[in-house]
Every structure is written in structure tokens, then in C-alpha cells.
Write a structure and sequence with these properties.
Blueprint (H helix, E strand, L loop, with lengths): L3 H20 L9 H16 L11 H22 L8 H24 L6 H28 L4 E3 L27 H11 L7 E3 L2 H35 L2
Antiparallel strand pairs: 1-2
Helix pairs in contact: 1-2, 1-5, 2-3, 3-4, 4-5, 4-7, 5-6, 5-7
């Protein structure tokens, strides 16, 4: 029987892939990404809200984490249903998602560090965590661009918001969930890997600092997780006769 945390690694990986696939769907189908983000947050609450090493069911830290996750889901749902003209509703979402995703990453790394050996499930969990960071970064970039249009510039489509190339014009009364987030998710993953193709660039100071944070977190996550996995492999080899 599979360990519950190992099942969570698989589920998180699948949910991340589904959200990424929905972003690539043509036409209006890519709007499925909006409920996909909420599903991702719920998956994190359930999987990472379990008691971890030296943490009891009644741990206040665990309950605080789950409470923050619920607030994040509520803010995401409110924001996705809000008309574009009321875009300032995305400010709480940026704050809550930032805190929740960083805390989720720390709990995931802690869970990976508790593994005694490196197997397929552990590698899946580590990769899922990286995808989770990328999707979170994409959501934060998209929210910032919605709140402050023109935060990012697309060299392929000069003039207009990165969120609205598919529609061509902005309808202030349309809900935020009808916007297309693909280009900014693309930018987020490129920044996470510190590659930077240069076709999408941050323009405002807020967007530039967000790009710095994304690149720093991506590098830090890879360094920490790789260190954990390598140390577990070395420990396993040393125990062999």
C-alpha cells in the first residue's frame, strides 16, 4: 500500500500537469486554468496540511497553514469572478498566494527531507514542487498585470496587455477568469529557470522585483532539493555492504 505522502506527490504532479495543459488549450478552453489554480491550492491544503515530522494533529502551525490555504482559495475565487474594472481585488490574492506558496514549498521540502531513500515517488514530488512554484509565479504575474496593465511588455505584440491579445480589446465588465494567462505563465517558468528569452520583459518596478524573486526562488529550490536527494543517495550507498 502506497504511503499517503507518496500518493500526494503523484496527485500534485498530475494537477500541475493538468493546469499547464489547460493553459495551452485553444480558444476559450484555456479558461479552465482558472478553476485549475483553485484545485491546485486545495491539493496543497490537503496534502501538505497533514502532520509532518514531529508535528501532531493538534499542532497550531498545521492549523494555521490550512487556514491560510482556505483564505487563499477564497481570495482566488473572489478574484476570478470579479469584473476587470474591479481589478484591485487581486491585491489580497497576491499577498495570500505569496505567503501560501512559500510556506507550501517549505513544507514540501521538509516532507522530502524526511524520506529515507530516493525513489520514483520522491523524485515525482520534487518535480511537482518545481511545477507548483512555476504555476504560482504565473498566477502572481497574471494578477499583477491585471491590477496594473502594462507591468510586462511583450515584444511580439507591441501595445496592449499581455492578458488580452486573444480578445484584442478589454471589456471592463468581463470577469477576470475569462482572460488568457498563457504568456505570463510562460514568462514565469522562463524566469524560474533563469533562462530569460527576452521576448517578455517586466517593465514596472513591481514586475521587475517579482521577476527577481521568481528567479531567486527557482534557483534556491533546485539547490536545496538537489542537495537533499544527493545526500539521501549517498547515505543509501554507504549503508550497502
Amino acid at each position: 500500500m502506497a504511503h499517503p505522502q507518496h500518493r500526494f506527490y503523484r496527485v500534485l504532479f498530475v494537477v500541475c500537469l493538468l493546469v499547464m495543459a489547460s493553459l495551452a488549450l485553444p480558444g476559450r478552453w484555456n479558461r479552465l486554468a482558472s478553476p485549475g489554480y483553485l484545485l491546485l491550492a486545495l491539493t496543497m491544503i490537503v496534502g501538505l496540511g497533514r502532520p509532518q515530522t514531529s508535528e501532531s494533529l493538534a499542532s497550531p502551525t498545521r492549523h494555521l497553514y490550512r487556514g491560510l490555504g482556505v483564505l487563499t482559495v477564497a481570495a482566488g475565487l473572489l478574484w476570478s469572478l470579479t469584473p476587470v474594472e474591479s481589478r484591485d481585488s487581486g491585491i489580497p490574492l497576491i499577498l495570500l498566494w505569496s505567503l501560501f506558496s512559500v510556506w507550501s514549498s517549505l513544507r514540501l521540502v521538509r516532507s522530502l527531507a524526511a524520506e529515507q531513500r530516493v525513489g520514483q515517488q520522491v523524485i515525482t514530488g520534487a518535480f511537482a514542487g518545481y511545477l507548483m512554484l512555476g504555476l504560482t509565479a504565473g498566477l502572481l504575474c497574471s494578477t499583477l498585470e491585471t491590477i496594473q496593465p502594462g507591468s510586462f511588455s511583450d515584444l511580439q505584440h507591441s501595445g496592449g496587455s499581455l492578458l488580452l491579445h486573444r480578445q484584442g480589446t478589454m471589456d471592463q465588465h468581463q470577469p477576470v477568469w475569462t482572460l488568457s494567462f498563457i504568456r505570463l505563465n510562460y514568462f514565469a517558468f522562463v524566469s524560474l529557470t533563469t533562462m530569460g528569452y527576452g521576448d517578455v520583459v517586466p517593465v514596472t518596478p513591481q514586475a521587475q522585483m517579482l521577476g527577481v524573486v521568481i528567479a531567486t526562488l527557482g534557483t534556491f529550490y533546485v539547490a536545496v532539493v538537489m542537495g537533499l536527494l544527493i545526500s539521501r543517495l549517498i547515505a543509501a550507498e554507504s549503508r550497502r555492504p
